[in-house]
C-alpha cells in the first residue's frame, strides 16, 4: 500500500486510548494523525503516557470535526454519550468511524436509553452501525462506515456461547455467564473502589442485579440463534479481579443432548478465525496467555459427563475486548490483512 | 474454666498450621502443648514462621501417639491420608480429634477412595466422625470425639445453598457453584503453578471436570434436603485467584417459585449464627471483608427479577474454611463460648 | 481496672480510622464512645467499613467539642491541619489527645510551615506535645496530655538508626534511608495514581527530591545523638510498593569503626522493648511478618565485611506506623499494660 | 537481507527462553530453528508456553552440537555452568554465541569461582567473551563471536552510574545500589519462597550480605572509570518485589562537586542510545513504563540540593535485563538495525 491510512483517536487519555496507540503506532499501514482530549489539549501524549516516551511526538488536540475529517478513520475511545454527538457530522463527510463506546451497540434505542439512563443523542445512526464482532459480522464490517465495537464482557461471552446457540444444543433460557475482569475495565478515573488498597487482595461480584452489558450480550446471542428458538436469556454476574488486564468468562448451559462432540463443534466453528483459539479438551485457559494480544482462547467441557456444558473463555479486555478488536475491525474495513498491527505475542510471564 | 485445654497440632508446618497457631496461641482457654512435624523436628516454630517470633517457644516434635495422648484435643493439619493412620490410636485413648483434612468428610468409603485415589486407611472410624459444619451439625459436634472439618469450598458453597435447599425453593438438579480461591488453598508446597510469576496477574479455572470437593458438597447439600426431594446435583467450577486468602462462591439455581422473600429466608436461617452474616439486599460481599476472621458473609438476589436465584458467599479459606472453623468446632466440643479465640476483627484494608 | 477508658476517634472514615477501630473495639479496657465524620454523619460505621459488620453499633457523628470532652482520650485520624484547630479546646478541658497526623510532630514551627505549606494553627501547643515514639520517649509519654504519633516512615527509619546514632558509630552526615511503603499509606482518597491499574505490577520512587517525613526523621535522629556530634543528615527516598500494607526501610551509613558487635548492640538496645524484634544475624525481615501487628522487626549487617552498615527495618504502616503505635501510646499514658489490645498475631500468609 | 539468520535457543523452557521467543518469533530477519530442552524433548513449545499457541510449530529438541552448528547464532538461556561446557565446540565451528547466563561475564576466573562456588568449565573462552552492554561496548560486540549478556541488576545499575563515574563526579568508594526486582528474576523453578502465597503482599531484602551480581557490577563500573581513580566499591542490596516483571535501582553516591549540571550530563551521555531514556528533571520512572520493552529509563536528582546524587533506573528484567538485550546484541553482531524485533511498545497499563 502506497499511502498510509490516517487515523484519529477521540478521547485518547484513557486505557483504551493508550492501548489503541500501542497498536496503531506500530501498525505498518497506519499513521496516527490526531489524538484528541479537551482536558489535556496541548499536552504531549508521551508526557501523559510515559510508556510512549520516544515513540510519538503527538500532542493532544481539541476535537474538531473539520480537522478530524482529514482522517480516513476516527476511533472514539470516549465514555458513552460522546460519540453520539460527534458521529453524524463525520459520517456526513465520508469519514469512517469505529466507536469503542456503547453508543451504537444496541439496536433498540429504548433499551439503550433504559440501561444507560439518558436520551440517545443520535438514534438515526443506530441502524447504520454494524456490530463489530468479526467472528459473526465480518462481511458487514467490510462495507461499514460506522462500526460499534463490542464490549469486553460481551466479546468473551458471545464467543463462548455462539457455537452452542448456532447449533441449538442448549436450553437458551437457562444460560449463566459468570465473568471476571481486571480493574482496567473500569477505566482511568479516580475512584475509591478501584484503589489498589481496596481492590487488590480481594474479590467480589458487582452489578449482580443488572449490568449494562446484559442487553448487549442477549442481543448478540439472539442474533445467532436459529429462527424459532426461544430467545436467549442470560444470568450474568460480573466480578472484579485483583489484577489489571484480562477477562475470564465461565459459561454454563443445560444441554439438550449429550451425544454431540463439543470439542469438534468448537474447532470447526473457529477453524478460520485468526484470533480465536480453541484449546485442547481438558485445558483451562488463563488470562495470562492472551495478555497484550488480540486473542480469545476457549475451552469446552462437560463436567462429570453430566448434562451441563461449561465453556471457559479468556480475552485481554483492553485488546480483543476493546482496542485490539477495534484495530481488527479497521483492518477488515480497509481491506488490510486482518492481523496487521496485531502480531505482537502475549506477554508471558 | 480452671485449667486450660491442652491442644496439639499434627503437621504444623503449613498454612493451616500457622493459622491454627495464630488462633490458639491467643485463645484464653487453650495451651498449645505440641506441634509436630517429622521433617522439621527440633526446629523452633518461630524460626519456621517468622510471624510468630516472640509469641511461642515451641519447637516441632516428631508425632508420637503417647505424647499426643497427653493432650485433650489433637488437630490434624496434614495432607489427606495421614490422619487415617493415626486417629484410631488417639480415639482409643479418649483423645478428641479435629481433622482438617479430607479423611473423614465423606461417609461413603467407596466414594472417598474413588476421588482420593487410594484405599481408605481407617474406614471403621468414618461412621463415628461428625461433619464439622456447626450451622448444620452443632448438636452432634457437641458430643463428638472425632470431627471432620469441612473443606474450604464446601463451607462457602453449603452455607449459601442451605436455606434454599432446606426450603425446597430451587431445582436441586441444576445447581451451579462458580467458586474462586486465593492461592493459600494450595498449601505451602513448592510448585511452579503457584509461583507469583505464574499465578499473579492472571486468572483461570482448574479441575473443572471434577474437583474432590464436589462429592463432599453434594453429600452436604443432600443432607439438608427434605425427604423425597430429587438429590442435589451440582456443577462446580473452581478458579484460582491472584491473591493469597479468600474464597468467593457465586451460586446459581433455578427457582421453583418467585414469590418467596429470599432475604427474609436467609436472615431467619442464620439469625443466631455467630459467624454467618447475611448482608442487606443489594450487597456484594468481598473476600476482603472477612480476611483473617471466621466469618462467612452472604448476599442473595434475583437478577432482573427473573427465576434464577444468585447467592454470593465469601469466607477466608484459612479461617472459616479451615483453621477458624476447627477452633469453632473445638469450642463447641468443649463447651466454651463459640467465639472464644476467634474475636479478632478482619484485617482491612 | 474498674471502668473502661472512653475513647473517641475524630475523622474515622479512613484507613487509620478503621485500624484504630480494629484495635480499640477488641481492647479489654477501652470503650469506643464516638467516631466522628462530618461527611458521613449519621452513617453506620459498619456500613462504611463492611469488615466491622456485627462488631459495632456506632454511627459517625459530627465532631463536637462538648461531646468529645466526655471522653478520656481523643484520637485524631485526620489530615494534617485539622487537629491544630480542635486540640486546644480539648486540652483545656483536660482531655488527653493522641494525634496521628503530622500537626504536632515537628518542634520548629517554621520548619513545619515550610514543609506543610500552610500556617500552623496552634503553635502554642507544639511545645506541649510529646513525640510518641515509646522506644525513645516512654517516660514523657506517660505524663503527656498531647502525644504526636510519629509518621510511618519516621518510625521504621528511626528505630533502625537509633542504636547506631546513640552509640556514635556512624558518620551522621551520610545517612541514606531507602524506604518503600504499601499504598495504604496514601490513605483512602480517590486518586488516579493509587488505582490498582496504575500502582500494581509496578514500582517507583516518589517525592525523591523532598518528602515531608524528612524533617521529622532528622529531628528524631538528632534528638538521640550525643552532644557535639555533627547533626544527622539524611538522604531519604520513599518508594511505592504494589501492595497494601507494610513499610520496609533499608538504611545505609558509613561506619566509623568496624570493630563493634553490631548485633549485640541492637539486641541490647531493644531487649526490653515489647514491639521491637531484633532478628538473628543474616535475617531478612519481610513486611509480611508484621502484617496487622504492632511489631517492628530489624536486622543489621555489614555486607562483605566492608565499612558500610546496613539496617533492614519493617513495620506495618497502619499499625506500628500509625494506629497500633497510637494505642501503644494510649496504654502508656493510662498506665495499662503496653501490649493491651495489641496482642493479635501477624496475619500469615 | 535475503536469507534470515538461523537462531537456536539452548534451554528454552524458562522465562528468558519464552521472552527470547516472544522477540525472535516476530523478528523480521530471524528464523528460530531450534529450541532445546533435555527434560522436555519432544514437547511442543506451544504446549509448554500456552501464550505461544498458534505462533510456532517448534518442539523442544535435545541439545546437540552438530545440529546447533547449523545455526548462525545460539542463545544460551541456561543456568550458570551449562554454557561453559557447550560453548567451546560451537565457537570452534564458527557459530556465534550469546550467553544470557553468568558464565562469561566476569573476566577474573578466580572471582567467578568464588562467587559461583564451582570450578569454571571453560576458562580459556573467558578472555574471548565481550561483555554485552552495548552502551559501553558496542564496537567490540560488533566483532564478537561470544557475547556475555549482562545480568539484570548489573544492567540497571551500571547504566545509572556510568555517566557519573566516567566524569569522575562522585566518590567511587561510597556507592550504594538499592535495587528491587520482580519475581520472574528467580526463574521458573518450583520454590516455596517464590509462591504467590509467600511473595505477594510482602517485601524484603535478600542476599544482602553478598549477591553474585556484586562483582559483575563492580567490574563494569571500574571499566568506565578514568585511570587513577579509586576503584568503584559498591554496597548492593537487592529486594524482592511482589510483582512479576521489572527492576528498579535507586543509586546513591556522594558528589565531589555540586556545580555540575547532572541532567545535561546524562542527556549528553545517552543522546544516541536507542534504548536509554533520560527522563526530565523531577521524574520518577516506574517499572511499568518499560514493561515488555527493551528500554531503560533514568532520572537523576540531587535531593534538597545536598551533596548526594540519586539516580533512579528502571528496566524490564526479562527484556533489557536479559532477552531483549540479547537480541540487541545479536542485531549489533549481525549488522542489523539495533531496534529490529524490539520495536514493541511497553504494555500499559
TrEMBL record, chains A, B, C, D:
Keywords: Amino-acid biosynthesis, Arginine biosynthesis, Cytoplasm, NADP, Oxidoreductase. It is an enzyme of class 1 (oxidoreductase). It comes from Biformimicrobium ophioploci. Belongs to the NAGSA dehydrogenase family. Type 1 subfamily. Catalyzes the NADPH-dependent reduction of N-acetyl-5-glutamyl phosphate to yield N-acetyl-L-glutamate 5-semialdehyde. Its EC number is 1.2.1.38. The keyword Membrane does not apply. It holds the Pfam family Semialdhyde_dhC_1. Its main location: cytoplasm. Residues 6-144 form the Semialdehyde dehydrogenase NAD-binding domain. SUPFAM superfamilies: Glyceraldehyde-3-phosphate dehydrogenase-like, C-terminal domain, NAD(P)-binding Rossmann-fold domains. The keyword NADP applies. It is found in: Cytoplasm. Pathway: Amino-acid biosynthesis; L-arginine biosynthesis; N(2)-acetyl-L-ornithine from L-glutamate: step 3/4. It catalyses: N-acetyl-L-glutamate 5-semialdehyde + phosphate + NADP(+) = N-acetyl-L-glutamyl 5-phosphate + NADPH + H(+). This is N-acetyl-gamma-glutamyl-phosphate reductase. InterPro entries: AGPR (IPR050085), AGPR_AS (IPR023013), AGPR_dimerisation_dom (IPR058924), AGPR_type-1 (IPR000706), NAD(P)-bd_dom_sf (IPR036291), Semialdehyde_DH_NAD-bd (IPR000534). PROSITE patterns: ARGC. Transmembrane segments: none annotated. The active site is at 152.
